[in-house]
């Protein structure tokens, strides 16, 4: 049974926009945020009028790209002062502050483009999804590859039943040398004074206060810490899941269990602070008309865990992709390389199968077009919210390795293991509380 908010959010703009331009604010303009800014800047009908970042060095660089934009180091001040001057925002900040900023923007009636994962915690995703649908704002999760021809082709093929009924799904992300994901911990014994250009209290936001430490959290290594990130599966999982989720029309899982890196599992200090550098998560989803039985097992592999050799051997076109989804059907298999062209297997059986003709699409521009009432977004929260919930249930399972967690989606409970429910939501620190998270 699915959760009750899986409805499509309205793609209509809330009001006529002055001069046909979308007045936009960028919240988070360093790293991935700089990339996002450039994509919004490249749309002819976008006027970027405000910029925000807790790091004044990032803000200075962005201001050189967008001369005349109004500048902020606190998103709360931006939303207050720009309430009647902007129509939309994009949010590109560490995971632990996704919900509170996006919720503030939605409550202000703004359209929201939010980088993945949608939130840090399952409970946050549920609330944000419901709020976005109630408000009728346009939303888009930053799963850029979802708009690619490759992923959209895969969705069409799955829905068309080209490989028959799907029996099993294998997803992986086995990139090596990821900055920050080889960090084992523990946390530094002593902190340092934050540099003058970094507004550290605003960076910490909803998380527990931690002393600043250079090259440990900001700007790039925050993802490995449980306080701030969601681990590798929570991050890249949103990309690899997307076509599979949409193609199979998946709903909330029935259960989830995780196997983790042994050295992490055996270290109480690391388990209390960081995410493992490898994990294998298995969800059991309810079946439907596109699956071969009344349940569908879906497995995720990263770090030192790899899809089974016999699954990888189905692909004979060279090395198995580091990041991909493989669906095993009753009539064949479908490999969906991340950012690449999907492949029907065995290739000899499907060699004459034609690819659909699809137009190129920019994920950011598609969001803009939806805000201007010209399109429907590819990754609106009504769809990607339930998907993100499922992915983040995997991060809960990581924290209780080996325990099969039965999931009651409607009540947000683990009926067989209530002790894991404490990982569904955080208590925000003093000064950053919100109803339901304080």
TrEMBL record:
InterPro entries: Gfo/Idh/MocA-like_OxRdtase_N, Gfo/Idh/MocA_oxidrdct_glycsds, Gfo/Idh/MocA_OxRdtase_bact_C, NAD(P)-bd_dom_sf
Gene3D superfamilies: Dihydrodipicolinate Reductase, domain 2, NAD(P)-binding Rossmann-like Domain
Alphabetized Pfam families for the sequence: GFO_IDH_MocA (PF01408), GFO_IDH_MocA_C2 (PF19051)
Gfo/Idh/MocA-like oxidoreductase bacterial type C-terminal domain sequence ranges: 181-266
Domain Gfo/Idh/MocA-like oxidoreductase N-terminal: 23-142
Domain of life: Bacteria
One example GO MF annotation: nucleotide binding
Full protein name: NADH-dependent dehydrogenase
Organism: Parapedobacter pyrenivorans
